[in-house]
Amino acid sequence: MDAANFSYLNVAEIEISYRNPVKPSQRAKVSKSSDCYELLLRHWGDTIDLYEDFYVLLLNNAHRVLGLVKIATGGATRCEVDPKKVFSVALLNGACKIVLSHNHPSGNKEPSDNDTCMTKNIAESGKMLEIYLIDHIIVTSDGFYSFSDHGLL
To answer: Can you give the chain as a three-state secondary structure string?
Structure first.
């Protein structure tokens, strides 16, 4: 029988590639929560006080920045995050460590119960993949909250 008659043989070809023109020694290094906040704030844009966005900062084992990826956009009070998307991006880019980040348009720097629960779930999931969550930064236009600085990671 002709292979063209079998519809299950018609599948998409997937290609994975990673291109980073920046040498590892020239990549930004983050060593504390304020470093992450400054980097994130520079890249956030004008919507920081309008609606929630969720980013993941991808790091190598030496805390050098591999990239910053927007994972989700939400409304004024919440943003739904799919952990599968967080880890697929981290895996495809060879990240050993990640920093989660989202903004609170209200200006309130304190994490919600949902923020805390999601952070714990992602931290636990990452351990199995050897992708370690080192912080979750809540960004506002006039400051930040670090889960790591407050002993929550």
So the answer is: CCHHHCHHHCCCCCCCCCCCCCCHHHCCECCCHHHHHHHHHHHHCCCCCCCCEEEEEEECCCCEEEEEEEEEECCCCCCCCCHHHHHHHHHHCCCCEEEEEEECCCCCCCCCHHHHHHHHHHHHHHHHHCCEEEEEEEEECCEEEECCCCCCC
